[in-house]
Amino acid sequence: MLFRPLLALVLAFCLTFVSAPSSVSAAITDGAGDSDFVVGNERSNARFGNIVNTGRANDCPTIAAGSSGSISIGSGDTLSDICLQPTEVLVKVAPTKRKKADFAKTKIISPSNNTTIEQVFGDISSSGAFAEKGGIDFQLITVLAPNGEEVPFVFSAKDMQVDSNSSSISVGTEFKGTTRTPSYRTSNFLDPKSRALTTGVDYAQGLVALGGDDKDLQTENVKRYIDGKGQITLSVDSVDAGSNEFAGTFVALQTADTDMGSKEARDLKISGVLYGRKG
User: What's the whole-model pTM score?
Assistant: First the structure.
């Protein structure tokens, strides 16, 4: 009787491998190259075993470097699968109290493999301007500045409005415009002293001890939902006219989180990889 549970466990373990789909087994054993994952419209054919725990799921698709051609765009057309993968984040900080603040390199500490905006889509106007309509259009990221400060921010392509002043996409085309950066915190988020915009306590300090008012603490006690405005440039350096795909780089200027108005927003410069396609 004592061996029956053990026998059942061993049998179940064996059946798990016997009944596993052949595609999964192939994914584990097949050493396919990177192209199975990163090449444009072949991304959906990527094998699980080549991606899991590698960080490649955070990579934008690519097309052959140096590909040239032209993709016509106009009123009624759409751009889709737009992907923006940050590769470098600079934050404006002062090295010392006596030196002027300047952009400095940072290290992405959270999340390390989930920073990419992707599947963004939108419409093209008659002038060649693009208006974002949806997609996975923001990511919450925290970087570590050289002075040891952790800087959280919302990397955003929300409400992106960019214009190329052209009727086609080719090598050298640039889309320039603006984005909206939503607040890193929502109205129900409680800070360490249980203060929030719509919940929690209104005032965490003793009124008598503070003399009834304190301007230095007012910004921490009075929470505000603050949206930011960003600027972005999309630069195209490769075009595949046959598949209507394009790739290149981007540079975005925006602000970091203010903790709902309790601290000054730091300026950020985010650059990285661009991918998209027409239709």
Answer: 0.77
Q: Which residue has the higher pLDDT, 156 or 215?
A: 156
Confidence at residue 207, expressed as pLDDT on a 0 to 100 scale: 52
Q: What is the pLDDT of residue 227?
A: 87
DSSP letter string, 261-275: TTSPPPEEEEEEEEE
Any idea which fold 67-187+225-278 has?
Answer: Porin (2.40.160)
d(CA 161, CA 129): 7
Spatial separation of the C-alpha atoms in residues 42 and 103, rounded to whole Å: 37
Residue 238 CB neighbours (<10 A)? 19
Helix or strand holding residue 72 (H, E):
strand 70-72
Q: What are the domain boundaries of the chain?
A: 1-60, 67-187+225-278
45-48 long-range contacts (CB < 8 A, ≥24 apart) are 47/23, 48/24
Residue 124 DSSP one-character state: E
Pairing of strands 138-144, 78-93: unpaired
Of 67-81, 109-123, 186-200, the poorest mean pLDDT is in 186-200
Alpha-carbon gap, residue 35 to 46, rounded angstroms:
9
By the 8 A CB rule, do 208 and 195 touch? no
Sign of CA dihedral 72, 77, 83, 87: positive
Q: Residue 273 is encoded by which pair of tokens? A: 């990889």
Residue among 17, 57, 11 at smallest CA distance from 34? 57
Residue 181 φ then ψ, to 5°: -110, 105
